[in-house]
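# nightly structure sweep
# worker-07 picked up a monomer target from the shared queue
# config: single-sequence mode, recycle default, output format = structure tokens
# input follows
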Amino acid sequence: MVDHLLGIEGLSKNEINRYLDAAHSFVEVSERDIKKVPTLRGKTIVNIFFEPSTRTLASFDIAGKRLSADTINVSAGSSSVKKGETLLDTVRTLESMNPDILVIRHSESGAAHFVARHLHRASVVNAGDGAHEHPTQALLDLLTLRQHFAKSKRSIEGLRIGFVGDVRHSRVARSNIWAHLALGNEVRLVGPPTLVPFEMSAVFGGGSVHVVHNIVDGLRDLDVVVCLRMQLERQDQHFIPSLDEYSKEYCVSEKLLERYAPESVVLHPGPINRGTEISGEVADGPRSLIRQQVNNGVAVRMAVLYLLARSAQSHEEIIK
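# output follows
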């Protein structure tokens, strides 16, 4: 049976920790002088991205190469989709070339699930589908938090997490929320009603997910603040009066954090709109884990590719 990683929803705590444990080992590989292991030698990975991407595409490409796999990057502009070919015909054509893993990003929610249902030999990794899920971003965020809280001998269970901004359209938030619920954490969704509708709590089963429209109440006593990117491409849809108005109400500043969540750390999936959803002082300050998130992206994607295509060898043998 072919394994896939299509989303975080439905994964158990043990399954999430399995990815994180594997990623922990691969962090060390990326710090070596020779950043390469023979784990996936002879395997082929196709990264097919129908949306623009810098860090995610580069991260998957580097991860595949560090595992010694052959990697091929295909963009929408260079694919036959531009000539009218359907998504299904494109991926079936690629599968006929016998890749082992197909990493797909697409603007339509559910695209990765659709592709996985129709492929029979290649594993599928969802690298972001519409406003649905971005599972590897959630895993790298969790790895970053695990590393940070381990310094004070805390686990990443029992935390208070706040997502500030455009939750409605954020696949990063969705995957993270499912992950934190699996770990038993309290989740707060903070933003204006147009971007954080009250009904969103019910989407995640209510319970530990709370919607807050006032940023002061939303930030109070949080352990982790996740600033979400304001999606500038959606501003013509009038979810907010203007970016200036939004930033006055919801930009996460050091002054706010120092007063209401003084012990918190800050994540941001990037790219950052400085002064809109996060101040430069916070993004570059001591509570920011943003650079560590990017660094961990390679290790997490190595772990995902490894676990989907692993051989019969033990993990310890493979990474030597």
